[in-house]
Write a structure and sequence with these properties.
heterodimer, A: two-stranded antiparallel ribbon, elongated, B: 3 helices
């Protein structure tokens, strides 16, 4: 149990650290660095504590149920391989933290860097420790995401942004392929559990879906590990700060791909397809990467292609797939991480202290930076495979693995030769790195005079180079036991005999090493003079730029094709879109219902009520009238719409739905007022629009009429069919039987809303609040159209009358004719509040409830606004609708969370009755509290709508005043001088 | 009863559909209101029609006969639908006003149709 907690802590630690680092002040780089360093050290400590549990082939697993019904458990497991990798992630991470502290400028937002770095380390740990292949993909995509943020850290630079975006697109796409592969894999095996998937190798290999699954899987691994032909994103990612490159391209990110290949090789490997694809792509990448690396002039570019080449080497080993090759792959993962991290850091130091990374400018630095030079030379020697350094041993194991007969195919026979060829170039570019940078004449024209860095910046490099040396000299004694555990955990019983000794006698592998060494030196000697003059990249090949192809493809996919598709099938006009939607709905309903036998309704006149029919004769006339009049007679249409709404309301009351009738009536009032307020801002339309008479316009209307009639007839037929067929048993029975006993209320509709389905209501009021805030935000920047900005016509007439009459103040007419209604409305205010409270409190047992009560209270406020002008009301009444909204949502949430305290799920209601003196027995369900939240939110939202719209008149009055002042000023200015320059329009409100 | 209500729903939805295919924003908003009446009644009618009852129980704890009550579930659904359609109407009204202010026209596309 303790180990499981340690494992969970190991996963959570970096993310917690990341959140914490994000809160550190932007200039506190020491605090952030200390925090990150502590996290890494703690991670290493946890790993040390976990070691006894995984020794001798053990593994620690921790399960957390997620969606058990779908077989999704968040499972974490750590075995020898994951442990070894985790040590690299945390250990090199620690050194990177230290290095970055001195590398980054105080001007950079350093805590943000550490926050991203820790989150990235957490995501990487997640990949290594996932025991569920879906969870693995989640962490996989997370690394893509955080690497995007890290590569784009210097977001002011366009190359950083482009590099980050390219890395995200390429690895993110690969991640999606991997997700598909994992889903297929889960389908084949019947479980997403990593242990079960790894144990089901035979089943997977014989399944018909093996090949498509493998291709998708490899897309994921190859894009991440920058394998040919997806290698192009990695050099572009060099725009990142060097600590990021050192971390992402040595121990993490790109190693995730080879981790996956090695991890899954026992389950997916061993087939011809695997060998050809993985080994073929790997060896190609190795050779191509090494060749290009030799011809790069940028230090980090050389290292980037060298990384690609070494990843190709590891991929090739995974492709060969023999137990011995797997051992070599793991060993090289470790060795490459160590020497490449130190080389990137050394390159960063050179760049930092001399101001350039261009090898054509750098020269003779050894004299100026002897310590850094020595360290870099040793690390580069390891990269080239010089004996007594760690790179040599794993490279020799690679040679030995390529010699193992696989299947006698042409690729198999070619492998040793291609491996040697790659190694030749590897030696040559390592030599170029050492020779051009550190030897030769003293440098000239460097942006900065080079010197040794601060000692602490060099410490991480020293540590890593020391490891290179120690592993190189004493491999079995140092890394041996850990490597052994890693091998056992992946291969289980299949562990080969291997020895990590330096000397295996004069065998073929040593010969290959020697040949590569000699040929590499000769190659560099031959090319040394010509390299600096050449282009950035190998002859001929440098013309093919992966980046350009990628950019073209991206342009094609994200711009050109969508434009073409938009031109052909898209429209920016609303009407065709809506028509298409309506037709789709019509056709969809028809499709489903076509030929269903019950869809032949038998029309009966049972229960025909002539009064109801009369009511609906009025309703139908209103609806059709509204449709007819909405263009030229908006006010009439609004009245008719209200008529249709009232008939609907009557129908609800008639058909046993008092709650709906109440709510509909109240909402009807508010909607009408809203639309009335909005109508003021629409253009006047007195004359007919001339184009309406055109034949085409009439044709369009005819077509729309046919669609509308079709829809109407269709839905009438469907509803009649349903209504005239008997209803089977429904969930309604349960609601009716349990509303009082379980929910403590007799109004079943209200109990459903605030208790049984409270979560839906909670979501709904949240939507209501969001809509209200959106309305508020939209109207803050509202500008009325110029022709609507003036005073409304009626007001102009009234004011003219006031002005014409002697001794009559402005606004008197309005005041007079509103006098009686205004007093009535003001006196009704307390009554309205009482009605709202009454509706609210009776809601649980009788028709009413939070919605109805809320709207009723809002109407009370609304009446005050109608009765007097806005300024008068707001001088006397302070309504803070946004607070009402927040208060309502908080109460509802608190009620929901409150049930957690008693160990129940979110929003579990508790119902009981309490006796109050004088009042008597009153319901005191917790649902009532929830309903209070609903009530408050509805009040706030409704008032916010109305006020936001009503305030537009005030605002436009202000704009009008400014406009008049401006005009007056302009006239004065014109009077003063003939040349009156037009002023820019005043930006009001 | 059923026949009348079905025809009513058909007329509401038909008028509304005609209006939402029209070019002026006010027509569309009235159309949406009409369609929402029709759809609310349609959802409500899925619980079948019952005259003279209400989904309100008595407190004496007698055994409940579900046939004596209307279906409360469609009612609860429609209640939320009424409030939400009110909110969306308000939102649409504001977008309508803003679009009118910005573009100077009340055409749904923000510009008059080119003839």
């Amino acid at each position: 149990m303790i180990e499981q907690n340690l494992l969970a802590a190991l996963i959570l630690l970096p993310f917690a650290g990341s959140l914490l680092a994000a809160t550190v002040a932007a200039h506190a780089r020491n605090a952030a660095a200390w925090l990150s360093g502590t996290v890494m050290v703690a991670g290493l400590g946890l790993l040390a504590a976990l070691w006894p549990a995984i020794e001798d082939g053990g593994a620690v697993r921790a399960h957390f149920a997620w969606v058990p019904s779908m077989g999704l458990n968040i499972t974490f497991r750590i075995d020898g391989f994951a442990w070894l990798f985790m040590v690299l992630v945390m250990g090199i991470g620690l050194l990177i933290v230290l290095y970055a502290r001195y590398y980054l400028s105080p001007k950079d937002p350093v805590p943000r860097f550490y926050s991203f770095l820790l989150a990235f380390a957490g995501a990487m740990s997640g990949i290594l420790l996932s025991g569920n292949i879906i969870v693995l993909v989640v962490f996989w995509e997370m690394t893509s995401f955080f690497s995007f943020l890290l590569i784009g850290y210097w977001h002011h630079s366009a190359t950083a942004r482009d590099g980050a975006r390219m890395a995200l697109v390429v690895t993110g796409t690969g991640g999606l392929c991997l997700l598909a592969a994992m889903l297929i894999l889960g389908h084949i095996v019947g479980s997403y559990n990593l242990d079960r998937v790894l144990a089901a190798g035979d089943l997977i290999r014989e399944h018909p879906l093996y090949l498509p699954m493998l291709l998708l899987f490899l897309m994921g691994a190859f894009t991440k590990s920058a394998q040919f032909p997806f290698q192009f994103w990695l050099p572009n990612a060099m725009a990142a700060p060097t600590p990021v490159s050192a971390y992402l391209h040595s121990a993490t990110m790109v190693k995730a791909g080879v981790f996956l290949l090695v991890r899954f090789s026992p389950a997916l490997g061993g087939t011809t397809a695997w060998f050809w694809l993985v080994a073929g792509v790997g060896i190609t990448t190795m050779v191509v990467g090494a060749v290009i690396a030799l011809f790069r002039h940028d230090l980090k570019g050389l290292l980037a292609y060298s990384t690609i080449s070494h990843l190709g080497l590891i991929t090739a080993l995974a492709g060969i797939g023999s137990p011995f090759a797997i051992v070599a792959a793991m060993f090289h993962i470790v060795n490459h991480a160590v020497f490449k991290a130190s080389l990137f850091m050394a390159a960063g130091i050179i760049d930092h202290e001399s101001g350039t990374r261009d090898m054509r400018k750098l020269s003779g630095l050894w004299k100026l930076m002897p310590f850094t030079g020595t360290l870099a030379i040793i690390a580069a020697g390891s990269m080239g495979g010089v004996p007594l350094l760690n790179g040599f041993i794993s490279k020799e194991m690679f040679f030995a693995a390529t010699l193992d007969a696989q299947d006698g195919s042409s690729l198999d026979l070619a492998l040793p030769y291609l491996a040697t060829l790659g190694a030749v170039f590897s030696v040559a570019y390592s030599l170029r790195f050492i020779h051009t940078v550190f030897f030769g004449p003293p440098p000239v024209d460097l942006p900065k005079p080079p010197h040794e860095p601060v000692p602490w910046m060099r410490r991480p490099v020293e540590a890593l180079v020391l490891i290179c040396l120690v592993i190189g000299v004493l491999p079995a004694a140092t890394v041996g036991p850990y490597l052994h555990e890693a091998v056992v955990s992946v291969l289980h019983g299949d562990t080969p005999r291997y020895s990590l000794d330096l000397w295996h006698g004069f065998n073929t592998a040593l010969m290959m090493s020697l040949v590569a060494m000699a040929a590499g030196v000769a190659l560099y000697a031959a090319l040394a003079r010509r390299l600096p003059e050449g282009p950035e990249g190998p002859p001929f090949l440098h013309r093919i730029k992966g980046q350009k192809i990628f950019d073209r493809l991206l342009l094609l996919l994200s711009w050109k094709w969508p434009r073409v598709a938009h031109r052909i099938i898209g429209t920016e006009r609303l009407q065709p879109q809506l028509r298409l939607l309506v037709l789709l709905a019509f056709v969809g309903a028809g499709w489903v219902l076509w030929g269903v036998a019950r869809m032949v309704p038998v029309i009966t006149w049972d229960g025909f009520d002539p009064v109801f029919a009369m009511v609906w004769a009025v309703g139908a006339a209103c609806a059709i009238g509204a449709a007819w009049q909405a263009k030229y007679h908006r006010f009439a249409a609004l009245v008719l719409l209200g008529g249709a709404g009232l008939v609907t309301c009557v129908t609800f009351a008639w058909l046993s739905a008092p709650d709906l009738a109440v709510t509909q009536l109240l909402v009807e009032i508010v909607t009408t007022v809203l639309l009335l307020l909005g109508m003021r801002w629409l253009p006047k339309r007195r004359e007919e629009v001339a184009a309406d008479r055109l034949f085409m316009a009439q044709l369009r209307r005819g077509r729309d009429l046919v669609i509308a009639v079709g829809c109407g007839v269709g839905i009438a037929a469907i509803s009649y069919t349903v209504m005239s067929s008997p209803q089977g048993p429904t969930v309604a029975t349960w609601f009716l039987q349990n509303a009082y006993t379980e929910g403590g209320g007799t109004n079943v509709v209200n109990v459903i809303l605030v208790d049984f389905r409270a979560f839906d209501t909670y979501g709904e009021i949240a939507v209501l609040g969001i809509v209200a805030l959106t309305v508020y935000a939209l109207l803050r920047r509202f500008r009325p159209a110029s022709e609507s900005a003036g005073m409304p016509e009626q007001q102009v007439i009234q004011d003219a009358r006031d002005r014409a009459t002697e001794g009559r103040e402005l606004g008197r007419t309005l005041h007079d004719y509103m006098f009686v209604p205004a007093i009535l409305m003001q006196w009704m205010f307390p009554v309205t509040i009482t009605i709202a409270a009454y509706l609210f409190f009776r809601g649980h047992d009788l028709p009413g409830g939070g919605f109805a009560g809320g709207v009723a209270l809002a109407i009370g406020f609304l009446l005050q606004y109608i009765a007097a002008n806005v300024r008068w009301v707001e001088a006397r009444l302070r309504i803070l609708p946004i607070r009402w909204i927040g208060f309502g949502l908080l109460i509802a949430t608190a009620t929901g969370v409150g049930s957690w305290l008693f160990g129940y799920p979110f929003l579990t209601a508790h119902a009981q009755y309490i006796d109050l003196p004088l009042i008597g027995r009153v319901p005191a369900a917790s649902a009532l509290l929830f309903d209070l939240g609903v009530f408050a939110l509805v009040v706030g939202a409704t008032i916010l709508f109305l006020i936001a719209i009503a305030h537009q008149s005030l605002r436009s009055a202000r704009v009008r005043a400014q406009e008049e002042a401006r005009l007056a000023e302009a006239e004065e200015a014109a009077a003063a001088s003939d040349a009156a320059a037009p002023r820019p329009a005043t930006e009001g409100v | 009863m059923e026949l009348v209500l079905s025809i009513a729903i058909g007329i509401l939805v038909g008028s509304g559909t005609w209006l939402i295919l029209r070019p002026r924003t006010f027509q569309v908003i009235v159309g949406l209101c009409l369609v929402s009446y029709g759809v609310n009644l349609f959802i409500f009618s899925m619980g079948r029609l019952l005259v003279g009852g209400a989904p309100v129980l008595s407190k004496d704890g007698t055994i409940i006969d579900p046939a004596a009550f209307p279906d409360p579930l469609p009612q609860a659904l429609v209640l939320t639908a009424i409030v939400i359609s009110f909110a969306t109407t308000a939102l649409f009204l504001v977008v309508l006003m803003a679009a009118r202010g910005f573009t100077g026209t009340d055409h749904v596309d923000g510009k008059e149709r080119d003839q």
